Model the fold of this input.
Amino acid sequence: MSTFHSLDRSGRHGHTLRMKSYAKELWFETAKRYELIDITKQVEAALADSGIAEGLCLVNAMHITASVFINDDESGLHADFLEWLEKAAPHEPVAKYRHNVGEDNADAHIKRQIFGREVVVAVTKGAFHFGPWERIFYGEFDGRRRKRVLVKIIGE
Ligand code: ZN
Done:
């Protein structure tokens, strides 16, 4: 029996591939420069909309000064994250960064690099196959303007 049984296009095993593909862009405009937002419910709504029961869901920030990451929804931890990021890549003094010629967001590029561009979550039986306490977050490091997150789901 093939390891890739479920991907066999031939239907010889009575299993025809009917891969679906779904994409949705979520928009955010934060009030503050930095915000960590739990977007799990919005991504779950996209999954429900997709009708996909088995597959993979990619969630990525579409801007290079924002992140998507998975962690605990706990306010103390989020304060710790932001404090740690500010030590690693402080916003001020703006002039210390070579990138900050005509803009002031070098720190945001570095913060995003640390927290990552995207996550991929397995979809099993129509739901996200999370580990304990896992939630999906949008990490904004240069906010107060409209920015997007892409949700792309493939499967069947
Ligand atoms: Zn920049």
